[in-house]
């Protein structure tokens, strides 16, 4: 009985002009994670459809069948790639007004996995940085930031201005080769099945990754010894 209900609802989603709670749920998900694989998004889409139908039914038999389907491990039982494309088309029509979209791309690491990312089409480099990377890249960015602000990399100094006021300066920097080593070791792997497995970088990949961050203004390389720190990230406090 629930199969007919699901089939009819999916048929509605195949109409690119349709916009439902399922579309809103997909937007919320992709905005939250920024980048998601096609397979993961397909699984989420099917569960979102079943959940919306579950919330709207008052038939106990259908409710039980829907709950069973939600818990099922069968992937894409009720939808296909055309359903996903129709849903994304409807979403992007809405987002276009704001200069945003959910864009399709291929994972640079595998060249085969299809990814979907929430992007700002009119954004600045800093905004695009937050949307153009995979989950692995985002975890590496966090890893870089954590290393920069680690206690052992804090530098404190004091200077006196023309009026005799003492200014305390706190700066953060990591030697370039030390950061390369940290990137090659990769971030700590959490014991969580839902967390993606972080891919470690080679020496060349680490250098390219840091150069990319510098290009977008997130990091700055300076001095002959090439220490590294956010650009700029110095705090002055007058006492």
TrEMBL record:
GO terms for biological process: double-strand break repair via homologous recombination. InterPro entries: Nse1, WH-like_DNA-bd_sf. It catalyses: S-ubiquitinyl-[E2 ubiquitin-conjugating enzyme]-L-cysteine + [acceptor protein]-L-lysine = [E2 ubiquitin-conjugating enzyme]-L-cysteine + N(6)-ubiquitinyl-[acceptor protein]-L-lysine. It is found in: Nucleus. GO terms for cellular component: nucleus; Smc5-Smc6 complex. Its EC number is 2.3.2.27. It comes from the Eukaryota. The keyword Flavoprotein does not apply. Keywords: DNA damage, DNA recombination, DNA repair, Metal-binding, Nucleus, Transferase, Ubl conjugation pathway, Zinc, Zinc-finger. GO terms for molecular function: ubiquitin protein ligase activity; zinc ion binding. Belongs to the NSE1 family. Component of the Smc5-Smc6 complex. Acts in a DNA repair pathway for removal of UV-induced DNA damage that is distinct from classical nucleotide excision repair and in repair of ionizing radiation damage. Functions in homologous recombination repair of DNA double strand breaks and in recovery of stalled replication forks. This is Non-structural maintenance of chromosomes element 1 homolog.
């Amino acid at each position: 009985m629930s199969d007919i209900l699901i089939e009819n609802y999916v048929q509605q989603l195949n109409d690119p002009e349709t916009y439902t709670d399922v579309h809103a749920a997909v937007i919320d998900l992709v905005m939250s994670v920024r980048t998601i694989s096609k397979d993961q998004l397909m699984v989420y889409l099917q569960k979102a459809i079943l959940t919306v139908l579950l919330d709207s039914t008052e038939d106990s038999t259908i409710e039980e069948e829907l709950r069973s389907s939600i818990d099922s491990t069968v992937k894409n039982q009720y939808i296909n790639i055309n359903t996903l494309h129709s849903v994304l088309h409807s979403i992007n029509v809405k987002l276009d007004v704001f200069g945003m979209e959910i864009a399709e791309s291929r994972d640079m690491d595998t060249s085969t996995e299809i990814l979907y990312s929430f992007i700002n089409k009119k954004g600045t480099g800093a905004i695009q940085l937050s949307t153009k990377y995979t989950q692995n890249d985002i975890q590496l960015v966090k890893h870089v930031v954590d290393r920069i602000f680690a206690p052992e990399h804090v530098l404190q100094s004091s200077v006196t201005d023309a009026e005799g006021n003492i200014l305390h300066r706190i700066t953060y920097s990591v030697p370039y080769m030390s950061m390369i080593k940290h990137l090659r070791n990769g971030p700590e792997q959490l014991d969580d099945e839902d967390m993606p497995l972080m891919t470690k970088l080679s020496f060349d990949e680490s250098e390219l990754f840091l150069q990319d961050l510098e290009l977008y203004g997130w990091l700055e390389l300076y001095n002959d010894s090439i220490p590294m720190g956010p650009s700029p990230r110095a705090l002055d406090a007058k006492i």
